Amino acid sequence: MATLLSSSSLIFSSKLPSNSSPSLTPTLSLSSLSQSYSFSSSLSISPSFLTSPTSTKRLSFSTLNVKAQKKKVLIVNTNSGGHAVIGFYFAKQLLGSGHEVTIMTVGEENSDKMKKPPFSRFSEITSAGGKTLWGDPAEVGKVVAGAAFDVVLDNNGKDIDTVRPVVDWAKSSGVEQFLFISSAGIYKPTDEPPHVEGDIVKADAGHVGVETYISEVFGSWAIFRPQYMIGSGNNKDCEEWFFDRIVRDRPVPIPGSGMQLTNIAHVRDLSSMLTLAVENPAAASGNIFNCVSDRAVTLDGMAKLCAQAAGRPINIVHYDPKAVGVDAKKAFPFVICTSMQNPELPRTFWGGTASQTFLKT
């Protein structure tokens, strides 16, 4: 059977000229390695997703650590949803870079949720030297049994009540840097997309209170706002929803005109961005980053790209959710209005360059 290969990687050069900024060579691609089927193509959407800081500071190369200090990192990971795969890839990336990693997943190890990816693939973490734990984030100190860490990433909480115990424990335990996975969905709708960091956010979004609290408690912190994550091991339908219908020669129902715009990014690239923040805390500190591709894709375009990767014809059917009595939030994997962010400033901030790749068959 053919395989859909991911050409996505965010490569950080370890040896650079003294007068240059770090080189970023990201390649974002759709990857679907589901248990049911796989494909022979590599589906690329965008060259980069690095996001812009909220402050106006610009860092010289001397600020960044070419030879990173090895860190002890704790990842507090959600046990469901599209963000679950982030902690998995981040742990593997850190371990591959020589850091010590403990990933603490919410809940119990023997729960049914742990039978699904990415949790069913946690042996890839332990075999690389990582440690896996399960428990209640409100009792994180007890779960880690007094272990000390340099960095904590909260990839679980969506509101202050959930994240505050982790932040408070981390601060009292001497953790130096706190990272938080927020959401690009917290921006208020705008007539002038794409969103950039600093745009108005929804006052009632739980992530907003979390971001504010972290910035008040920690001196070294960074916030990451992803949109739609793709990649093998995802706990939530994204690209696989399209592939599932395409390979069965089923119509692909898309609400509205299909011209709505969105952003996607491969989780491997986000994990590389997070690793860069760990290894260069001064560069990341005090900033919020939109973790999205710098090239939007329409909903129709997403479907067509998946069809190209699968090497199959596609039959797109547009419909009005209200007219047919369908709840599009449950029937379709993406929001049905244009929702996109801008990563242009972060590339300038990090001093990076990008190279595009396109669909390869």
What does this structure look like?
This protein has 361 residues and is of the alpha/beta class. The chain has a single domain, classed as 3-Layer(aba) Sandwich (Rossmann fold). It has helices at 84-96, 123-126, 140-143, 160-172, 206-217, 239-246, 267-279, 281-284, 299-310, 321-324, 328-331, 344-350; strands at residues 9-12, 24-30, 43-46, 72-77, 100-106, 131-135, 151-155, 177-181, 221-226, 228-230, 252-255, 261-262, 264-266, 287-291, 297-298, 316-319. Strand 8, helix 5 (206-217) and strand 9 (221-226) form a beta-alpha-beta unit. Helix 4 (160-172) runs parallel beside helix 5. Residues 1-63 and 351-361 have low confidence and may be disordered. One of its GO terms (cellular component) is cytosol. This is NAD-dependent epimerase/dehydratase domain-containing protein. One of its GO terms (molecular function) is UDP-glucose 4-epimerase activity.
How is this structure best summarized?
The chain is built from 12 helices and 16 strands.
Layout of helices and strands, plus pairs?
Layout: E1 9-12, E2 24-30, E3 43-46, E4 72-77, H1 84-96, E5 100-106, H2 123-126, E6 131-135, H3 140-143, E7 151-155, H4 160-172, E8 177-181, H5 206-217, E9 221-226, E10 228-230, H6 239-246, E11 252-255, E12 261-262, E13 264-266, H7 267-279, H8 281-284, E14 287-291, E15 297-298, H9 299-310, E16 316-319, H10 321-324, H11 328-331, H12 344-350
Parallel strand pairs: 4-5, 4-7, 5-6, 7-8, 8-9, 9-14, 10-13, 11-16
Antiparallel strand pairs: 1-2, 2-3, 12-15
Helix pairs in contact: 1-7, 4-5, 6-9
